[in-house]
Structures are given as structure tokens and as C-alpha cells.
């Protein structure tokens, strides 16, 4: 069982490396299934470098590895998303891998993934979008070594904004999944 798990992780890494090297694919293609419609169109429209979108990195200045787990900085416990998308951006993959490594090394650790959306869209739609975002992060963590027993998800939709406001800067900060370690 142990070697099968490692084989699966190795295959995922190869798959991700192959996808990263493709230039003809749509940016809206989601490893975990895109939900189509406006969400797919919005995901393919942006590059992830849109103005007002917070940057995320698995490495600090100078290239040193970031701290994962409950002692991680607040910045390293936030995953931001493009408008109307549940696709985890490439820039967060190594950060999530670091959290997965922490969870794998600490089986008693528990992590709640809180999905959020900006105020645009209906309440019901945003609850669903927040859940899809939390599930996308959960799937990546599972594929990289975390166990299902360690992870729980909840969606707050637009109900708990990080920033109040009705402009792109506020919206970009509200489209997120928060990684909340539980003691």
C-alpha cells in the first residue's frame, strides 16, 4: 500500500510536469474537472498575472523554502483564485506540496479548507464555487501525501469577505481558500 501511494504521487508529478510544458492547452483545463460555462471562459481568459491578484509563492525572498503547517505565515495559508474559477494556479502548487508534506509527517494534524468567493453571483452559486475551490485544494493535498482524515472542507461563499469593497482589488482578495490548522 505504501509503495502504491508513492507511485501515485510520482505519476501525478509527472502529469503536472507534462501539463506545465504544454503550450497549446487552455488555461481553463482543470485536472479535477472544470465546471464549464462562464467559469471555464473566465479561467481561460486570464493568465493568473491579472492586475490586483495577490501573488503566491512556495519560496520566500532569496529562494528559501517557506514554513508550512500551523506556524506558516498567514500569506502561506492562503490560496487565491481567478474570477469564477476553481482551478488552483500553478504558483500555489509547491506551497500546497509543502503543506501536504507537513501533514504526511504529522498524522495527528488537522486542516480545515475554507472556500470563499467574491460578492458577484448569487449566494447559492458562490457557496458552490467556494466548495469547488476547497475541494480542488483538498484533492491536491491528498495526491501529495495528506490523508482524507486530516482534511475537512467548508464553503462560506461570499459571506466572510477578507476585504470589504466592490472593486477588482477587493474581489481578488476574497476569491480564496484559507488553510486553517486546528489544534
Structure overview:
The protein has a four-stranded mixed beta sheet with strand order 1-4-2-3. The model is unreliable at 14-62 (pLDDT under 50). The protein has 183 residues and is of the alpha+beta class. Strand 2 (110-116), helix 4 and strand 3 form a beta-alpha-beta unit. Helix 3 (93-105) crosses helix 4 (123-143). Helix content is 38%, strand content 13%. The chain has helices spanning 2-21, 37-45, 93-105, 123-143, 168-174; strands spanning 78-80, 110-116, 151-157, 176-182.
Task: Produce the secondary structure layout.
Blueprint: H1 2-21, H2 37-45, E1 78-80, H3 93-105, E2 110-116, H4 123-143, E3 151-157, H5 168-174, E4 176-182
Parallel strand pairs: 2-3
Antiparallel strand pairs: 1-4, 2-4
Amino acid at each position: 500500500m505504501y509503495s502504491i501511494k508513492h507511485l501515485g504521487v510520482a505519476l501525478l508529478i509527472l502529469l503536472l510536469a507534462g501539463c506545465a510544458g504544454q503550450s497549446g492547452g487552455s488555461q481553463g483545463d482543470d485536472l479535477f474537472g472544470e465546471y464549464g460555462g462562464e467559469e471555464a471562459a473566465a479561467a481561460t481568459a486570464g493568465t493568473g498575472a491579472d492586475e490586483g491578484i495577490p501573488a503566491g509563492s512556495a519560496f520566500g525572498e532569496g529562494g528559501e523554502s517557506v514554513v508550512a503547517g500551523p506556524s506558516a505565515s498567514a500569506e502561506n495559508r492562503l490560496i487565491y483564485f481567478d474570477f469564477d474559477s476553481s482551478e488552483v494556479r500553478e504558483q500555489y502548487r509547491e506551497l500546497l506540496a509543502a503543506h501536504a508534506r507537513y501533514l504526511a509527517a504529522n498524522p495527528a494534524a488537522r486542516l480545515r479548507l475554507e472556500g470563499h468567493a467574491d460578492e458577484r453571483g448569487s449566494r447559492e452559486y458562490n457557496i458552490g464555487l467556494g466548495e469547488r475551490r476547497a475541494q480542488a485544494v483538498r484533492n491536491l493535498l491528498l495526491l501529495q501525501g495528506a490523508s482524507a482524515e486530516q482534511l475537512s472542507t467548508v464553503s462560506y461563499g461570499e459571506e466572510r469577505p477578507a476585504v470589504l469593497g466592490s472593486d477588482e482589488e477587493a474581489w481578488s482578495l476574497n476569491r480564496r481558500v484559507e488553510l486553517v490548522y486546528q489544534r
